[in-house]
Each structure stands twice: as C-alpha cells, then as structure tokens.
Design a protein that fits this description.
Monomer. Pfam families: S1-P1_nuclease. Helices cover about 55% and strands about 5% of the residues. It is mainly α and about 300 residues long. Helix 3 packs across helix 12 and helix 8 packs across helix 12. The chain is globular, with a radius of gyration of 20 Å. The chain binds 2-acetamido-2-deoxy-beta-D-glucopyranose (4 copies) and zinc ion (ZN). The site of one 2-acetamido-2-deoxy-beta-D-glucopyranose has 8 residues, from helix 6.
C-alpha cells in the first residue's frame, strides 16, 4: 500500500515536472537576429549573395534575415536538442575573460561544443564544400548557413558569453521597469523592445536604418577593423567572444544585481552597446560569408 502510494506520487510528480515549461534560454530575440542579418545582406558581395540565395530554403524567399532565428526555433525540438549548447559560452565566474581551450565545452565537458566552436564548425563545412565540390556532400549546407548566421549573432550578445554560475544572467532575476524578468532576457529582447517603442515608432526597419546609418557614418573607420581577422583567417570568433564577456562585465552585470529594478538609467546607457553589437554582428557575418564564397570557386552549382 505505502509503496503503491509512493509510486503514484512519483508518477504524479513526474507528470507535473513534464508540464512545467522549460525556461527558454534563448539568444538575441527574433528582432536582434533579424536586424543582424538585415545588416549582413547590405554588405554581401555579389558572389556571396548568389551562393546564399541558392542555399536558403524556399520559405525564406531569398531573405537571409527570415531564417536567422531558425536555430532558436528548433533547439527545443527532439531532433535538434544536441544544438542547444552551441548558442553560448559559460566562462568562469567574475573572471571577465574568455579562452577557447578553457571555456569552449558543454556542461558535460565535451570540447568544442559552444558558440565559437560552432562558428568554426559551420564556417569549415561551408568553406570546404565550396572549395572542393567532390568531398563533403554529407553536410546539409542549408543548415550550416542558418546555424552560422544565427551563431555569429549570438556571440555578439554580451551575455551569451557570461558567467557559469548565473547561466549568462538567466538566473539573475530583475525587474525591467515594472516587469519581472531575468538579466539575460533583458539583453536578448527587452532593451531592443523598449528602444523600438521609445525611439523607433515600434518599427524594426527604422531601427535597422538608424544602425546602418551609423555604420556608414559614425563607425565607418571602425568597419575594416571589425571585419579583419588576423592571418587573413576566414573567421575569428574568439575575438568576438572576448569582446562580449568584457562588455558583459562592464555593462550587463554592472548595477544589475539580483532583485534590482532596471529603468531609464540602465536602458539609456546600455542601448548604444546593444546597437553597436548588432552592427558588428551584421558586418562581420557579411565579411565571413564574403570570404567563404569568394568568386573563382567554380563549385557553387555542382555542390548544391
Ligand atoms: C558540427 O556540425 C555538425 C552538423 O550539424 C553537428 O552534428 C556537430 O554537432 C557540430 N559540432 C559543433 C561543435 O558545432
Ligand atoms: C537540410 O536542412 C533543412 C533544415 O533542417 C531541411 O529542411 C532539409 O530537408 C535538409 N536537406 C536535406 C537534403 O536533408
Ligand atoms: C549611433 O552612434 C552614436 C555615437 O556613437 C550613438 O550614440 C547612437 O546610439 C548610435 N545609434 C545607433 C542607432 O546605433
Ligand atoms: C592577407 O591577404 C592580403 C591580400 O590577399 C595580402 O596582401 C596579405 O599579405 C595577407 N596577410 C597575411 C598576414 O597573410
Ligand atoms: Zn541562439
């Protein structure tokens, strides 16, 4: 009797646990990824644009930005659960720095399973497919493009390279004005949402235009530096991750202790950081795709 009761309780408990929604550990929200990839499209070379359009699923209708949040949409699906650890990097608490060998692993300690490892992985897949058509037909290059475009966005969200102990701000409960949320979500979505309402007439395309204008005016001298990788490498995500954890310490975690209420002062001082990271993510993704799909590689047709 007692044992049967225990069993019943365990079953009930299990059912209840299954019903509790898994807290969504997302990345730049939909808007952030959309903005990043809209900026990217502006800077693609003709060759890269051609290759990208061939790889995009029909549903995207030729618009890269339409699939840049795809990796978040599927990460909780059974088939893609393995990709969940590829959206972020956990770094040692309060160290404020990042090292690939030390930090790029999942919670089981499997090496390379983090956002920078994934960026290397999908860049390599696309590049090798375009460099020699014969090999690597085993990769799904449409998925590689969608993952790469998403993860380059993610690695620019400062709290995607955050402390292990607070799960990149996910376990830091704060109020955003009157709303209860967590610090990670503030950086994924809330700052952008509030900016849209306050400054951009709730129109994402106006915000994207404003960022683009800064890229061609205010930041025009910085753009070549953003695009550059040492040794002419195709991609250099370790630098982007180091910037992120540094910004996380300087801006995201600062004055955002558990239980605090974040309002105008935090919002207005952090928004420029967010807008610049969207710009850098967009410009860099374009530079990476341009390097992957450089002309002269005659393979485009045969490998698709
Ligand atoms: C690399 O890509 C393949 C194909 O999507 C995937 O199975 C593997 O988990 C990826 N590894 C990393 C570290 O991104
Ligand atoms: C490649 O991946 C996409 C997205 O998951 C999928 O819709 C498509 O069927 C895949 N293509 C192949 C040839 O498996
Ligand atoms: C444009 O750049 C200025 C100067 O750095 C900054 O204050 C402003 O927030 C930026 N606006 C956008 C939309 O990026
Ligand atoms: C990078 O590429 C440029 C142009 O192809 C070349 O002039 C330069 O020497 C290269 N730099 C390095 C460090 O390989
Ligand atoms: Zn993500």
């Amino acid at each position: 009797m007692g044992e049967w009761h225990n069993l019943m309780w365990n079953v009930i408990l299990l059912i209840l646990l299954l019903l509790i929604p898994v807290p969504a550990v997302l990345s730049w929200g939909k808007e952030g990824h959309y903005a990043t990839c809209k900026i990217t499209q502006e800077y693609l070379s003709e060759d890269a644009l051609f290759a990208v359009k061939q790889l995009l699923p029909d549903s995207a209708e030729g618009d890269l930005a339409a699939v840049c949040a795809w990796a978040d949409e599927v990460r909780h699906n059974y088939h893609f659960r393995w990709s969940s650890a590829l959206h972020y990097i956990d770094t040692p608490d309060f160290k404020c720095n990042y090292e690939y060998c030390r930090d790029c692993h999942d919670s089981y300690g499997h090496k390379h399973r983090c956002v920078t490892g994934a960026i290397y992985n999908y860049t390599m897949q696309l590049k090798s497919a375009y460099a020699n058509s014969a090999s690597v037909l085993s990769y799904n290059l449409t998925e590689a493009l969608m993952f790469l475009s998403h993860f380059v966005g993610d690695v620019h969200q400062p709290l995607h390279v955050g402390f292990t102990g607070d799960l990149g701000g996910n376990s830091i409960t704060v109020r955003w004005y009157r709303r209860k949320t967590n610090l990670h979500h503030v950086w994924d979505d809330m700052i952008i949402d509030s900016a849209l309402k306050t400054f951009y007439d709730s129109d994402l395309s106006i915000m994207i235009q404003a960022i683009k204008r800064n890229i061609t005016e205010t930041w025009s001298n910085d753009v070549p530096v953003w695009e550059h990788c040492a040794h002419n490498y195709t991609v250099c995500p370790d630098g982007y991750a180091s910037e992120s954890i540094s910004l996380a310490c300087k801006f995201a975690y600062k004055n955002a202790t558990p239980g605090s209420t974040l309002k105008d002062e935090y919002f207005l001082s952090r928004l420029p950081v967010v807008e610049k990271r969207l710009a850098q993510g967009g410009v860099r993704l374009a530079a990476i795709l341009n390097r992957i799909f450089t002309s002269k590689a005659p393979i485009a047709q045969s490998s698709i």
